[in-house]
Write a structure and sequence with these properties.
Elements: E1 25-36, H1 39-42, E2 45-46, E3 49-52, E4 55-56, H2 57-70, H3 72-75, E5 86-93, E6 98-109, H4 114-132, E7 140-150, E8 156-157
Antiparallel strand pairs: 1-6, 1-7, 2-3, 3-4, 5-6, 7-8
């Protein structure tokens, strides 16, 4: 497999990938963002939710992440606009100071949805930060990564070599 940037043409100019000759297949991507939240914020967690003057934090983050998935092509210049078939965002505490935000995106199409899943997880994390900053600015969005993708040329699962 030759390694080259898929979004550059032969002259090195930016170019959207031509997917016209690809077959439509079911494609799924799962991305996650991990966040550190200080004790003052985690102490607000009751019944699986944090309530603030702005409203329920996790519910709002799920809505924001869902909207972000649908707007990915408007944010990332060379992404294809897609007809997303499914979005599921799940937010859970990992321990007393960390949250896991997982975004699963599904489509039947000619291109993958990795960028959409990464965007959804990222914006959900940013929304949590925005809604909780009145308590503390010590939050850290630690990492956002692709956990899994299926469909297309090859499947990838966390821990497998991506090359």
């Amino acid at each position: 497999m030759s390694e080259s940037f898929s979004h550059l043409d032969a002259q090195g100019n930016p170019s959207m990938v031509d997917v016209s000759q690809k077959n439509a297949t079911e494609r799924v991507a799962i991305a996650e963002s991990l966040m550190f939240l200080p004790t003052i914020i985690m102490d607000q967690l009751q019944g699986g939710e944090i309530q603030t003057k702005k409203g329920p934090v996790f519910h709002t983050a799920i809505i924001a992440g869902t909207q972000a998935v649908k707007q990915t092509a408007n944010l990332i210049p060379l992404c294809h606009p897609l007809m997303i078939e499914g979005i599921k965002i799940h937010i859970e505490p990992m321990d007393r100071s960390h949250l896991r935000i997982r975004c699963r995106v599904k489509i039947t199409g000619k291109t993958g949805v990795e960028m959409e899943a990464l965007t959804g997880a990222s914006v959900a994390a940013l929304t949590i930060y925005d809604m909780c900053k009145a308590f503390s600015h010590e939050m850290i969005i630690k990492e956002t990564k692709l956990v899994e993708k299926t469909g297309g040329k090859r499947d990838i699962r966390e821990g497998e070599k991506l090359g």
